[in-house]
Amino acid sequence: MRIHVHVHADAEAAAAAVADEIARTVRDRPDAVLGLATGGTMEPVYARLIAAHRAGLSFARVTTFNLDEYVGLPPGHPQSYRSTIRRQFLDHVGVDPARSHVPRDDLPPDRAAAEYEAALAAAPPIDVQLLGLGRNGHIGFNEPPSPPGSRTRAVDLSASTVAANARFFAPDEAQPKRAVTMGIATILAARRLLLLAVGTAKADAVRAMIEGPVTDEVPASALRGHGDVTVVLDGAAAAGLAGDVGLTR
Ligand code: GLP
Asked: Is 136 a catalytic site residue?
């Protein structure tokens, strides 16, 4: 098993550990390439990185690539991932807008995907890719089934993902059902992967990712084919694991 699993006392401690890891990466390599994720799980991570910036950590030379973006929202919509990552992180830490990348939502999705792959190919490899975890085992918006060789592409969201993300949209608002996402192979090209999952709603997906079969039906299980993966959990998300909680394996 090449996944290192770290279980923390609570969600706050888990987010703090992830933020510390990102901060350490940027301190060691001020021109690091960071892979960013959105989702509720990441909000406390970004809040801590903003605090680190205010305490002196510079993000002026980093490059960022977000995992994914909705298709079909009006450009500039507050729940687009471009708006979200700016509001929650980028606008507060001085990342150069010319070096922060999100799949474009103002292009036809197939073209946005092709442009994103080209931008990734033109940049140095991502030093550390942050990942959340969908309740159905998705990473980015790689819904089941997602093949390990997939690259950035337009995808349909599963009904369970649309339901899980409904909380970010007003009840009378049209919610996107498609997205452009880095593919599994795109994600696995990062030097290091750092996945954060907290809460009981993620426990089944965490168990399937780490202890189930490696299968396209659990896209996160593909992470086991990468040599440098750290999974950071709280006790609730780790509750389904048969292995000893608290061990790094
Ligand atoms: C979303 C995103 C993923 C995210 C996951 C979990 O739909 N596309 O990148 O990791 O689902 O989201 P949350 O942290 O809100 O549970």
From this structure: yes
How far does the centroid of ligand 1 lie from the alpha carbon of residue 218, in Å? 15
Burial class of residue 197 in the structure, from the number of CB atoms within 10 Å of its CB (0-12 exposed, 13-18 middle, 19+ buried): buried
pTM, rounded to two decimals: 0.96
Radius of gyration of the chain (CA): 17
- Each residue's pLDDT, cut to its tens digit, for the chain (249 residues) gives 579 999 999 999 999 999 999 999 999 999 999 999 999 999 999 999 999 999 999 999 999 999 999 999 998 999 999 999 999 999 999 999 999 999 999 999 999 999 999 999 999 999 999 999 999 999 999 999 999 999 999 999 999 999 999 999 999 999 999 999 999 999 999 999 999 999 999 999 999 999 999 999 999 999 999 999 999 999 999 999 997 654 444
The atom number, within ligand 1, closest to the CA of 131 reads 10
| For the CA of 201, the nearest atom of ligand 1 | 16
- DSSP for 96-151, please give it: -GGGEE---SSS-HHHHHHHHHHHHHHSPPPSEEEE---TTS-BTTBPSS--TT--
**Structural contact between residues 69 and 106, judged by C-beta atoms closer than 8 angstroms:** no
For residue 71, the cross-strand partners are 178
